[in-house]
Each structure stands twice: as structure tokens, then as C-alpha cells.
Amino acid sequence: MAHIGRRGFVAAVGALAALAAAGEAAAWPGPGRRDGDGHGHRRGGRGAGREFRGMWLATVTGRDFPSAPGLPSARQRAELLAHLDTAAERRLNAVVLQVRPCADALWPSPYEPWSRFLTGTQGRDPGWDPLGTAVAEAHARGLELHAWFNPYRVAVHTDLSRLAPDHPARLNPQWVVPYGGKLYYNPGLPEVREFVQLAMMDAVHRYEVDAVHFDDYFYPYPVAGQSFDDDEAWALHGRGHPDRAHWRRANTDLLVRGMAERLRAVRGGVRFGISPFGVWRNASTDPLGSRTAAGVQTYDDLYADTRAWVRNGWIDYVVPQLYWHRGFAPADYEVLVPWWAETVSGTGVDLYIGEALYKAGAAGQPAAWQDPAELSRHLDFAARYPEVGGHCFFSAREVGEDPIGAMSRVVADHYSSRARGGH
Q: Model-level pTM?
């Protein structure tokens, strides 16, 4: 694809969005429906007998990498390679690297500035290409590299003036909603959905990533006493929807379905995965939901109908974040694993379980998380369900540091031999 500068793109995006919006009504089959052949957009699942063993490698606020902003490029590169080495040593086969943490980039994007988490200054060239390096070096170690994007988060503060001068959010402040101490792109604007998809797809065009990965942030998590101000977008684009919640879910569906279609058109083998919050809906809200009493439900609070995406085959894999211990009454791991197994059954969508390694031994966590065997028992339980094709651990720092030996226990009990990725 031809690449253009951010300013040139922003000037053109309104026209692109108008075309996209015009085509939505004709092209969109609607929630609950598959394409005419009765199938979703799958591009093939994991290899026969190949277990998914992944770890998330987070860059937002330097959670896992880099250890501090502004380090010399050689030091940053060495830290990244050390994480990849650790993944291989732990007999994992996939790394899910966060490459677009706050509407910025860990590669030389023509659409968005370099991430400030690299240099401390958004837009400053770090002197190397983290994503390009990660793809090449992961593959050299037999690891898959999944590019993890956050579609709508712009900043972990609310001051537009702190963004790079040519940041698209500064050039288009009407796209942005401040909420809960952060800035977000408004998912209800067609031009926003068009822009974020093009920005993310640039990485797919440039690099041989094995998958595109979204996390759990679509509309933001609820903040008590605050409302997400999308009144104007609702007035402009909400026609035909019975209420705002329905419209918001449709907006999220458009993003997910749109990315699936773009990925299918690029090349075979690029998979699409999402790691949602672990509870779609409680059974007390919807009889199709899980026997949980979670305070957040993705369908109602994040406007993300994760179950529909699976049932319609719009994604290739799902990694529900089941970050609770066995026996936790509001959201029991042993209740949610079978619920998700039933949800993916017959769809062809692969199910991997997101595991809260970061809780193991952490201060303030319940007694179950002080037991180094808790996570290993999670894998024992999940193995009862053939739909479960693997696990992903949050996150890389704990995979390496392993404070109470929980990860070592998982490796000893379950990963006695190497399970290679796609390379």
C-alpha cells in the first residue's frame, strides 16, 4: 500500500469515512447473521495438536517494556530480546506485543507518532524499529508474534496539548472524548473507525505479524458519576437504533467486523484475536450468560458483544481474561471456563484462557494467589475441556521474575517439551 503523511491522511479521512458510512447499510449483514455461505471470516486455526502458550508484553506506561523511557536504543533492543528469550526458555510459543498503546506506534507509522513510552517524548524517533525487530527475532526463536493494538485509547491523561503537535487527536479534537481521567477516540464516529483501522492495518502491511490482537478496551470501563459524552455522535448517527446502548454495540461490531474483513483481504494466515473481559453477561441478566455476579458485563458496560463475535466467526481466536481464582464467588474460574468452552463449541473459533500470573504472590491478593500451585491447577482444570486450546499469561514481567515460582510450576507441570509456534 502507498503510505502518506499523517497530515495528508487526516485531510482525506473525512471523505473516506463518508464512503465507508454510505456502504455500511448495504454491506453489513447485522448481528447474529453470518455471510451468505453460513460461515464467518476464519483463516484457519492452530495446527493440529499445537497448543497455544502465550504471554502478553505490555508497553503502556512501561508496564513490561521498556523498563524506562528514553533508554539508549541498544538497551531497549536488548530488553526486548531478553523478553523473547524468556518466552522461549519458558517453553512458550507466542508473544502478544502491545504496539499501539495510546494512539501511537512502536513502528514508523505514517498515521500516528512514535510512542512516548519509548523515548519519553511522543513523536521522537527512538532510533530503531521495535515491531520490526520483534517480528524477526520472535520468528528466529520459533515464537509467533501477535501485534496487540488498543483501538480507541488516546492518552492516560486528559490534556490534548501534551500530545505530539501533529497527533491526529490534536488535529481533530472533535474525535476525542475525555472520560475517567483519560482521552479516548469516539467509537460512534465513522471517520474515527476508518482512521483507527487504517492506522492499525499499516503494521500488518509492513510486517509478517502472525495475528492482530485487541484487548478488552472498546468503550471505556464505567466510572462512577461520569458519562461518556457521545451525545452529538448519537444525534448524528444513531438513527435506526432503538437506544444508545444498541447503537454503541453496533459501533463496536463495525470495528471488529471491519478489521476481520481487512485482514482477510491482506494475505492468508494473519489471524485475528480478542482478549475480552471474562464475563459477557451474568445469567441473572441474560439466561445465556454465565453463573456469575460480576460487577462489569462486557455486553452492557463496554458495549462489546463478545459472544456474538465468536458465534458469528468474526474472529479467529478469543482469550477471555479469566483473572479470578477457583472458588471466587462473583466470577469463579471453574464456572467461566466451561461457559466459554460451550460458547466456542462448533464455531471453529479457538479458545485460549487468559491467566492472571501478575496476581501470583502479589500483596493484597487472596490466599489462593499466594499458593504457587494455583495457576497450574487452572491448567489442570481447563484440560478437561477439549475446546480449550491453550493459555496466555499476563504478563511478561512476571513470566521472567516469577516471584513465588507460579510460572515455574506451570512449566514443570504442563510444558515439559517445547511447543513451537508457526515459525
A: 0.89
